[in-house]
Each structure stands twice: as structure tokens, then as C-alpha cells.
Specification:
490 residues, alpha/beta, ten-stranded mixed beta sheet, six-stranded parallel beta sheet, 21 strands, 19% strand
Length: 490
């Protein structure tokens, strides 16, 4: 099996969130299984800087934009596991400070940038190998199946290839004004409700959903949720029409990076049978955030984008109620100004109890996972989520809303049976979150129950091996023209 992954992010070359981690980790796991995988990435300024041993190739490649061919420059570098990454640039599309924009907003020509990227990737594909599957990710690469099928005459070498589109977060769809249609160089026929038109605008993700041979998303529950009006972001009807071709496959965790027994970022390494190192990590974390060094007080943490999706509205609704208990709370993240301001203004009122840092700091995130006792993820929706899986590995008990991948990965703890790996609450509301915190604190005071819960959580396994096997089965079904779903989401 030969798979070409086309993505706007690949860790460690370019990353703004979980997409880059997922693409590189899945590619590596598939390689371990014997699948031949290569990757195509935009030649961002930062990606070329981050790449080791990057070299410009002599491959003749271009992207068709608004009826003209824009020459592309193709670079190549190698990642661990022998993964080849081809970086595609052209004009000044990617030689810029940010991946998608600056602090002032998105680049106004993003539709042109990523239309060029997908066109160039399709032109490049047959020149670097023979592919069974083109696996594209999110709206930035969603035009791959659109161009390949709507204009078959332009890509004859790819006529027998199958394509997979993974939806990482349906809330981000690549919506652009109708004045941009000429950039895509597609017949106007496709600017219609059956294809790329969406309430008078162009929707790139919708086009990918309509044209791809198979669709995946990053957890089973999220695959079901996005077929409903509540979570479908206006595309639930389109997704329901492709239900037989949609599979939910949970993202995995790279335990080489997120593992308390190996982690170079934490004060002291530890494991499920030798937990004493976690006490040192907690003491260091309290010191870093200027909190009193109290080993017995429960330390809660949140590492998150500070946006409504992550439950910041219901969290702020009850945070002062939470702080009435004898506990400490740490928040790390950046996001909407209103949430940053609310938290930073609240912190002085609860000095010694609440510590807030509005920053993105991967090293500090590792220290928080290791030093905290409880981890809050009250998300309004969560396609997969990774922090709850990191937390379990570090013996830090997640408190999550039962949605998407949070529901798939966490088993609610029952003190009677001593089974479960975290605390879940079903209703999206402040009172429900507060009640979940109270349940968690009750378990924390019962040392026997708490120790068992920590052991349960640390033994959970979300390695990429199982997820990669599911993707491999999906590829195999496509190549053999077998039904995709076959009960995968039941």
C-alpha cells in the first residue's frame, strides 16, 4: 500500500495545533506497519527553517490558478522513520511569517494559497511515486478530491487512486466569497448547492466531503455527532448523505513524547508503580506558579485555547464556586480577549489559590500534566482531544464533558466497583461542571479510591498502533472497492 498524505501541517515542520501531531504520528505508525507513506506540505518559511537537511529538488511542478500555471518550487526533507516530506512553494504564497495569517487576522488570499497548494500536490504526486491512496486533511487540502474528479483530464495518472478526507474539526470549513470562484479554475457548474456552494459562499470543506471516496473524523462519537444539526455546523445534511462512507477513528498519542517515565521536561520521572516522582513535579509546579507548596491540597489545571468551544463560558460561570473549596487552580492558554481578561482579572482576588498564564508553552504544558492532580476539559464539543489522554498517562485525572473523543476515551469512575479512568458529566452547563468537580474532590479525599483511579488511568493505552491499523483497513477496503462503513461506528 502506497499512501501520499497532503496536509497544511506536519510536526515538527509546521504546527498550530493537533493536526500537525496527528499527521506525522499516523504516518510514522503506518510506516511501522509496512505501508509506504510520503507527505506533502506547503513550503512555509518556518517549515524550511525547521527542516533538517532540506534540499530543493529539480522536479518540474506547477499549480493551476485562475487559468494560469503558477510554477512551484519543490523541496524535500526526511523525518524520523524514513518519512519523505515534499514542501511545495510558489509565488510568495508561503514565504510569510505565519501559516494562515498574523495577529491581525487570516491572510486575505488563503483561498488562492491553498488552491495552489492542492493543485501543485496533484501535479507532484505522479512524479514522486505510484499511489494507491491520497489522504488529505481538513479544508486546506479538501480540494484534492474536488480537482482530481471534477477535472479528470488534468490528472490522468491519478485516475485509479482513491482519496480519503479527514475532518479534524468541522467548525473550520474554509469559507470564501463567491468573487473568489475564478481562482479555483473550475466550471461554474460546481458553484451550486450540490457541490461547493454554501449559503452563497464557497465552502472548500463541503467540496471535499462531496467528492472524497471516504471520510474520516477523529473519534467515533464525533462521527455520529456531526450528522446532527447541533454539531454539524450547517453541513450535517451533506454529511448524512455520505454516512455510509464516514468512519470515526480515534487519534492516538505519541508516548515517546508524552510519557512521565521518559519526559525530559518534568522535575522527576515516574511511572504507575513508582508514583513518588509525581509529588516532586507537583511541588515544582506550585513553585513555578507562585502557589503555596502544599502536597495534600488538590491541584486542578486547565491547558487550553481560551475559546467557547473549550467550555470557557461555563467554566467562568462556576470558577468562583470551585475556588471556595480548599484547592488550587492553574490555567494556561491563549485565546479570545474576553476570556483572557476575565481570568487575569480574577487571579489577584484569589492569590495563592488561582494562577493564570496567558501563553502557549509546550514545556510548561508537560510540567502541568505531571504536577497537577486533576485536569479540566469542559468542552462544548471536542472532535477527539489529546490532553485527556496525556493526563491519564501522567496520573492526572481528567474531568471532561461527555462529548466527541472525550466521551470515547474516558470511562466514568465508579467508587463502588473501582472501575473508570476519569470523571464525566453529560450536560453542557456550569452547574453540571461544578457537580463533576465536587465528585472528583470526594474521590480525592478517599485515598484508596483515588489511588485505584490513578492506576486505572495510567494503564489506559491510546498508542497509535490500533488507530493506524484501522486506517490501514480503510485504505484496503477502498482499494478493493469494498463498503467503507461495515459497522465501524456501531
Amino acid at each position: 500500500m502506497n499512501v501520499l498524505m497532503i496536509s497544511s501541517e506536519v510536526h515538527p515542520l509546521a504546527k498550530s495545533g493537533g493536526l500537525g501531531d496527528m499527521v506525522s504520528s499516523l504516518a510514522a505508525a503506518l510506516t511501522h506497519r509496512g505501508t509506504t507513506v510520503s507527505l506533502v506540505l506547503p513550503a512555509y518559511r518556518s517549515a524550511l527553517k525547521n527542516a533538517d537537511g532540506v534540499q530543493e529538488t529539480k522536479i518540474d511542478c506547477s499549480g493551476r490558478i485562475a487559468g494560469r500555471l503558477v510554477p512551484a518550487r519543490v523541496f524535500k526533507t526526511m523525518l524520523a522513520e524514513g518519512l519523505a516530506v515534499y514542501l511545495v512553494g510558489g509565488a510568495d504564497y508561503f514565504d510569510r511569517p505565519g501559516l494562515y495569517g498574523t495577529a491581525d487576522g487570516d491572510y486575505p488570499d488563503n483561498v488562492e494559497r491553498f488552491a495552489f497548494f492542492t493543485r501543485a500536490a496533484l501535479d507532484l504526486a505522479p512524479k514522486i511515486g505510484r499511489w494507491d491512496v491520497l489522504h488529505c486533511h481538513d479544508w486546506q487540502a479538501a480540494l484534492v478530491p474536488v480537482f482530481r474528479k471534477a477535472q479528470k483530464h488534468l490528472y490522468p495518472e491519478l485516475r485509479d487512486v482513491k482519496d480519503v478526507l479527514t475532518i479534524h474539526n468541522l467548525a473550520y470549513q474554509g469559507i470564501f466569497p463567491p468573487s473568489s470562484w475564478s481562482i479555483l479554475d473550475l466550471p461554474y457548474f460546481y458553484f451550486s448547492i450540490s457541490y461547493l456552494e454554501f449559503y452563497g459562499n464557497i465552502n472548500l470543506l463541503k467540496g471535499g466531503i462531496v467528492f472524497a471516496d471516504a471520510l474520516t473524523t477523529v473519534s467515533r462519537r464525533y462521527a455520529r455527532e456531526i450528522t446532527t444539526p447541533e454539531y454539524g455546523c450547517g453541513l450535517d445534511g451533506v454529511i448524512r448523505s455520505r454516512r455510509a462512507d464516514l468512519v470515526g477513528i480515534l487519534n492516538g498519542v505519541d508516548y515517546r513524547e508524552w510519557n512521565p517515565s521518559l519526559d525530559p521536561h518534568i522535575k522527576k520521572n515516574y511511572g504507575p508503580e513508582k508514583l513518588y516522582g509525581k509529588r516532586s513535579c507537583k511541588a515544582e509546579l506550585q513553585q513555578i506558579f507562585g502557589l503555596p507548596r502544599r502536597s495534600s491540597v488538590p491541584l486542578l489545571a486547565m491547558v487550553s485555547r481560551l475559546v467557547e468551544q473549550k467550555g470557557l463560558d461555563i467554566f467562568l460561570e462556576v470558577v468562583e464556586d470551585i475556588l471556595r473549596y480548599d484547592l488550587q487552580l492553574i490555567v494556561l492558554g491563549t485565546g479570545e480577549q474576553k476570556y483572557e481578561t476575565a481570568l487575569t482579572e480574577l487571579a489577584p482576588k484569589y492569590s495563592g489559590r488561582l494562577a493564570v498564564r496567558t501563553a502557549f508553552d509546550n514545556r510548561l504544558a508537560h510540567k502541568i500534566e505531571a504536577g497537577a492532580d486533576l485536569f479540566l476539559m469542559p468542552s462544548k464539543f471536542e472532535p477527539c482531544g489529546l490532553n485527556q489522554m496525556y493526563s491519564m498517562k501522567y496520573g492526572t485525572i481528567p474531568i471532561v464533558r461527555a462529548t466527541g473523543g472525550l466521551d470515547d476515551t474516558i470511562e466514568d469512575f465508579d467508587p463502588l466497583t473501582m472501575r473508570g479512568t476519569g470523571i464525566k458529566f453529560p450536560v453542557y452547563s456550569g452547574p453540571a461542571l461544578l457537580e463533576a468537580v465536587k465528585r472528583a474532590l470526594a474521590v480525592y479525599t478517599n485515598r484508596r479510591a483515588w489511588n485505584q483511579l490513578v492506576k486505572n488511568a495510567m494503564r489506559a493505552n491510546f498508542s497509535w498502533e490500533n488507530s493506524a491499523a484501522q486506517y490501514a483497513r480503510l485504505y484496503d477496503k477502498l482499494v478493493k472497492n469494498e463498503p467503507v462503513l461495515a459497522g465501524e461506528n456501531d
